[in-house]
Amino acid sequence: MAGILILILLMLFPFISFFNPYYLHIGTFSLIYALLSISWSIMAISGYISLGLASFFGLGCYLTSILSVSFHLPPIITILISAILSSIGGGSILYPLSRMGRGHFPLLTFAIAGILQGVFLVLQITGGPAGIKNIPPFWTLPGKEHVVDYYIALLVFLAAYISYRVIWRSGWKKVIFSLRDDELMAGALGVRKGKVIFGVFLFSSFFAGMGGALYAHLIGTVDPATAFNIESTIKPLIMSMVGGIMHMNGPVSGAVMVYLVEELLIHPLIPGGYLILYGTLLIIYISLAPEGIVLPGMEYLRKGFKPWHYLKR
Amino acid sequence: MALLEAMNLEVHYNDFAALSDISLTLERGEIASIVGPHGSGKSTLLLTIQGFIKPVKGTIRFMGERIDGLPPERIVEKGVVFVPEGRRLFLSLTVRENLEMGAYNRRARFQMDKSMQTCFELFPVLKAKEDHKADTLSAGEQQMLAIARGLMAKPLLMLLDEPFQGLSPGTVGKLCEAIKTIKDEGVSFIIVGQRVQRILKIGDRGYVLLNGRVYREGRAEDLLDDESIRHILLD
Hints:
The complex is a heterodimer of chains A (313) and B (235).
Chain A: H1 2-16, H2 21-45, H3 53-70, H4 75-98, H5 105-122, H6 145-169, H7 172-181, H8 183-188, H9 193-219, H10 224-227, H11 231-243, H12 250-269, H13 274-287, H14 294-302, H15 308-312
Chain B: E1 4-13, E2 16-26, E3 31-35, H1 42-50, E4 57-62, E5 65-66, H2 72-78, E6 80-83, H3 95-102, H4 106-109, H5 112-122, H6 124-128, H7 139-152, E7 157-161, H8 169-184, E8 188-193, H9 196-202, E9 205-210, E10 213-219, H10 220-225, H11 230-233
Helix pairs in contact in B: 3-7, 5-7
C-alpha cells in the first residue's frame, strides 16, 4: 500500500512542485543518488565493498558524451548503450579483482578509479583535462526540460529499484547473502560463486554507468575530475550504510534522506558543508547504529519509542 | 562396490606433506571414525575428499567414479556433503533459509520440501526457531542446523569435521542419536575429531591418523580398547 502511494507521489511530483526547476532538480538528483546507492549496495550485500563505483559512473559519463557529441545519437539511446558498455567493463574489470580476495577488493577498486581518471586526463581525443563540452540535453526545446529530466531519471530509477526488489524477493537474496557470509561454504553447497559474483558486478556497473550517463546529460559537460570524483563513490556508500544495506529499501531511503538533508538543511546553513554531514553520519553509523539509521530507526519508532531501553544498557 | 574408495592419497601444503599414502574405504550406511592428535591431517583428509584441496598423488572414487580433481560444487552434486569445523552457517540468513541453501544443488532442489520435513522431524528445535537468524541460536542448535543443512543436500556421504566440539554431553548425545537415525536411512558418515571416545563409539570402522599416515585401522570398538594407541590419543 505504502509502496503504491509513494509511486503515485513520485509520478505526480512535478505537478506537486508546480514545475519549480529547483525542486525538480532536487527530485532528479535524489533519484540518481538512489540509483547509485542500489548499484553500490548490491555489491556490498554480496560481500564486496567497492571504493571504485566512480569508475563506472565516470565511464558512463564519458561513453554517453562521446556517443552523443561525436556520433550525434539521441541521448535516450546513448545512455542505454553506455550503461551496457559500462556493465561489460565493470564485469571484466571487477571479476579478476574479486579473485584476489575480498580483503584487497576495496583498495583495488579504488586503484581502478584512479587509473581511469588518469587515462582520461591524458587522453587527447576526449579533451584531456578539459573534458567534453556541449553534451546535448534530453530535451532541447526550452520550457519543459526539467520535467523531462525528472521523468527519465524516474524511469531509470524504477528499473533499478524493481530489479533490486526482484532480487530481494526471489531466491537470489539467499544466494547473495550466503556468499557474503561464507563464500567457501556456499561453494561447497553447490553455488557457482563465480557466475553469481559476475552477475552482481554486471548489475552494479550497469546502473552506475546509467547514473553517470544521466548525470552527463543533466550537467552538459564532463571532465575527468568530476566524472571520476571520489564523491560519487563515497556518497552512495554512506547513503546506503545510513539507510541500512541489510534492508531491501535501506539504500534508497538512505539516499533520499541524506540528499534531502544535505540539499535543504545543510546547504542553506553552511554552503559547501556537506562533508561535515557525511563525516558525522559515518561516525554515527559506525559507533551507534551499525545496522543503519533510516530504516532501522523507522522500525524502532513503529514498534514504540522506548528510550529507557537504551538507558538500561 | 564400495561407496568411497580413497587410494594412496598424498597431499602437500607447499613442501610439507600433510597426508601421505592414505587409503580408506567405506560402504553404504557405514560410519568411519577418524581420530588422531592435532595436526595429524584429519581435517585435510575431509577437505581433500570434498575437493577443496587437490591431492598430488592417489585417487578418490565415489560410487566407482573418480572425484579427485573435481571442484567442490560438482562433488556435492554427486552426494558428498561437508559439514565443516566451527559450523560455518550463513549467519545473516534465517534457519529456514540456511536449510534452503543446503538444498541448492540441482539434485536436492526438487525434494526440498520433503527433506525440510525430515530435518524438522529430526531436530524439532529448528522448526520452533524456523524464522530466527542463525546467529541467535545456541552452539548446540547451530551444530544441529549445520548437520541439517548438510542433510538437505540429499547426501549419500556426510563428512563431519569436529561435530561435537564445545558442546555439552547432553547435546552430543542428541546429535549421536540423530546421526544414527540418518545412518539408518542409508547415509554414510566420516566423522573426524578430538572427542575420541564418542567418535569411536558411534563408528563402524575406525582409523587413527598420526603425522598424515594411517597409524591404525580396524573396527572402531576394537580401537577403543586398544592399549597401544592410548598414549597417542590421550595426549
